[in-house]
Structure formats: structure tokens, C-alpha cells
Amino acid sequence: MINTHVEPDAELAAIAQPTVYIETYGCQMNVSDSELMYGTLAAHGYAQVDGPDGADVILVNTCAIRENAETRVIGRLGELKRNMKPGAIVGVTGCMAQRLGPRLLQQAKHVSLVVGPDAYRALPQLLDGARHGERFSATDFDLEEHYEDVVAKRFEGVKAWIPVQRGCNYRCTYCIVPYTRGSERSRKLDDVVRETHAVVAQGLTEVVLLGQTVNSYNDGTHDFADLLRAVGAVDGIRRVRYTSPHPNDFSDRVIAAMAEVPTVCEHVHLPMQSGSTSMLKRMLRRYSREDYLACVGRLRAAIPGLALTTDIIVGFPGETDAEFADTVSLCQEVRFNDAFMFKFSMREGTPATRMPAEWTVPDAVVTERFDRLLGTVRGISREQNLMRLGATVEVLVEKIARDGHLWQARSRDFKTVMVPADSAKIGDYLTVQLTGTTGATFTGTPVKPRERAPLPMAAGAA
Ligand code: 5AD
Ligand code: SF4
What's the CA gap between 210 and 204, in Å, rounded? Predict the structure, then answer.
């Protein structure tokens, strides 16, 4: 990292209470990182604001996973340049910052700071330097960095994202993440449990444990099974989720913990990427079609009513018709509840860039395959949802729905359920009967009086 010589606290006094706005793109790890950045800056006297207008500091927390994620950010940086208040400091953080480093400072002259995911601790000092007109790129990896002493300033909502692992030791050939987030490291189990207690004290009842391959979690003493058991047993926690696991890291211990801990929800997001063994080999996913199916079988055998969702990439280099057909047929065989599908995007520096140019799948072919797969996945999802009609489930009310008249709630198995707004408030658990479905989401009618969300305890009660 390039260090600044400016004394932070002396500098801060110059502005009564500087304001900061962070705009977040990409995955839940980035959402969680933005909460850590707000926490770091709040400890140095910054006040959080909800929009870029008038903010003293604007940070854009970016994603680099696909090219279009980066294109969006470049466009947004241009917009901010036109609209920001004179003298405001703009910083770029996250995976795109890590990937481009000083190149971003050259490309965008109004950007003062480029800060990678392991350097957020230095933000207050870097901002003080930026106020003196200095420009920095801070992108060193720090394998010890877990931001343990930083109190995250959580966004409002009913669930808490808790990072338990940073970085990734896999090297899937399409993926930029190992280069933007560095090697895998796990937080200490005790620290995660302590944060879970703090989350309960804030009145939240659901936690989502985050890691790039979260079930490979190992803090030197404890594995992911221990972590699920420890977090799941925290008094006041009603729901534990985690994302995203890797199929190879589902040990029997982890599956047993999932099955035995009542608070761990019956849902696994299990990225498949492709249903073809030859394609999985080119992707360096380290499992075959049969291995993936075996993992699904073990999970389903242990956890009745398990919902499964997945990620799939269409058009990876060399994808043949037969390989794509294998992906479609694996979806039909597994019958996912839902899938996120992505058109392959070539990322600079990944092993895929070294594959022969003639392996490139033409855009028109990718689009046709994507649309076909989307039809298959949606059809399966609709069939399964229709079969759930009439079932009684517990939902947690999360937020107001887009139409403004209904609440959006979620079942343990990750279904979105719309409930009448007068039946509950955000944070309540309701027992509802699933009365209708659009094919993708449900409507639900309460069948029991609501259970009130716990009231937040006084600060320091944890
Ligand atoms: N192109 C398209 N999709 C990608 N993903 C990761 N890298 C790429 C890429 N280069 C997808 C994978 C992963 C999800 C988070 O993003 O499916 O699981
Ligand atoms: Fe990327 Fe593969 Fe690591 Fe997931 S497991 S973050 S896809 S390299």
C-alpha cells in the first residue's frame, strides 16, 4: 500500500462531520464489506448518508466477476463526476479496484482512491491524504486481515451477513475472484460467535455466513460443521444460512451438522456451473457430473424437504452442443428450485484467456443456449412451486414489496412469499398457507397469530 504521512485526527477536525455514501455492486460479500467500511469510517467521525448528492466522500464498491459489472461502474463513475458536489472525494473499492489498481487512477482523473478488499482499514488515512489532493492505490493482500476489531455498521433489514472466510484457494479457470480477493483464510470461530451474539442484541434473528467456498471454512481448530453448530446454538438466532459452498467441501460432518442443527435452514445454493464432466474439467471445478449428483443425493438423503439452487455458466470456451445438452439434462435430473445463469465473460488474467481462440462460442449460440436453459429452469421451478400450493410454512417478513401494498417474506427453504401488509411488520415470523404462485413467487395467507419480532436490547447487552 502507498502510505500517507497525514495525521488523521488533526485532518478530520478540519471538516465538522464529513459525510460518506457507499454504493455497492456485486455479491453479498461486497454488501458486508460496505458495512465494514461504514463501520471503519463511523469510528473516525464520518456520518453515513443515503445518496451521493452532497456527500463529502463517495465510495463505489465494485464487482469484477463479469465484464458488464465493470462497464456499469465505469458509466456510474462518469455520472457521479457530473453530479457530485465540488471538492467531493471519489474512491473505488472492491474487486474491480483490486484488479485495476493504479490503472483506474489513470483512466478516471476524478477518482482519488483505489482500495482493494484487504486495505479498507486504511480508508480514514487515505481519505485524509486525498483531501490534500493526493491520489492512492492500495491493493496489497493481507492474509491476516479479518477486520476483527471493526464494528460493522449494518444496513437495515432482518438478517445479518457475517463474513467467516475471505479469499479462495480454488482456481476455476473462468474466475477472477482468487486474483481479486487473494487466498482463503478463515476467521476464528469464537469471533464469529461473538459477532452473532452482537447481531442478536441488535434485534436480528437470521444470519447468513459468507465465504467464497464457505464450507471449506477451517480456523485451524474448527471446521464448518463446528461453525454451523456453534452459530446455530446462539440464543436468539432462529435462522442460519450460508453461501456459497463448493460441492467438494461437503464432508459428512458438515452435512450432519446441517441436518441436526434446527436453526440451519433447509436450503443449499450449490453452484454447478456445468453438467458436463469434460466441461467441468476445462473449468477446473474438480468434480464430475456424477460427483455433483452424488453430493446432491447425500444432501437430500440427510435433509428432508431440502431446496436447491445453483449457478450455471453458459458458453464457456469449447462448449459443444453435447456438453450444453448435459447441462440441460443435469438441471432436469436435479430439478433445482431455482438457478442463476450467466453468459461466460472472459476475464483478464484468468486461465481461460489462455485457451485456444477457436474455442470461443459465438454470441448467437450463447444467447440461444441461454434462452433455452432459462426456459427449462423456469419450467421446472414453476412445476415445483405449483406442487407447493396449499402447504403451510413459516416465513420471516423482510421488507415492503415493490408494489407497496404487500410485505415480502421468506420461507426457510428460500421461497419468496408475499403477505398482506396489515398482518405483520418487518422482522415478524408468520405461519402462512401458500395460496397462490406466479410460478416464481408465492402469495401467503396467515393461519396463526403473528409472532412478534424480539425487541432490540439495550446497547451493550450482548
Ligand atoms: N463469466 C460468467 N459467469 C461467471 N461466474 C464467475 N465467473 C464468471 C465469468 N467469468 C459466475 C459463476 C459463479 C457466480 C458467482 O458467477 O457461476 O458461481
Ligand atoms: Fe471463483 Fe471457483 Fe473460487 Fe468460486 S470456487 S470463487 S468460482 S475460483
Answer: 17
Q: Give the number of domains in the chain.
A: 4
The answer to whether residues 64 and 341 touch, using CB atoms and an 8 Å cutoff, is no
pTM: 0.93
Q: For residue 271, give the ligand 1 atom closest to its CA.
A: 18
In-domain check, residue 70: yes
User: Which residues form the domain of 446?
Assistant: 389-452
pLDDT score of 1 = 40
Is pLDDT of 359 > 80? Answer: yes
Coil, strand or helix: which one is 20? Answer: strand
358 with 403, same domain: the answer is no
Q: Is residue 1 part of a domain?
A: no
Instruction: Judge if the beta carbon of residue 212 lies within 6 A of ligand 2.
Output: yes
Q: What is the CATH number of the domain that holds 357?
A: 3.30.750.200
The C-alpha cell 476475464 sits at 347
Which tens digit of pLDDT belongs to each residue from 94-110? 999 999 999 999 999 99
The answer to whether the CB of 342 is under 6 A from ligand 2 is no
Q: Measure 212 CA to ligand 2 centroid, in angstroms.
A: 7
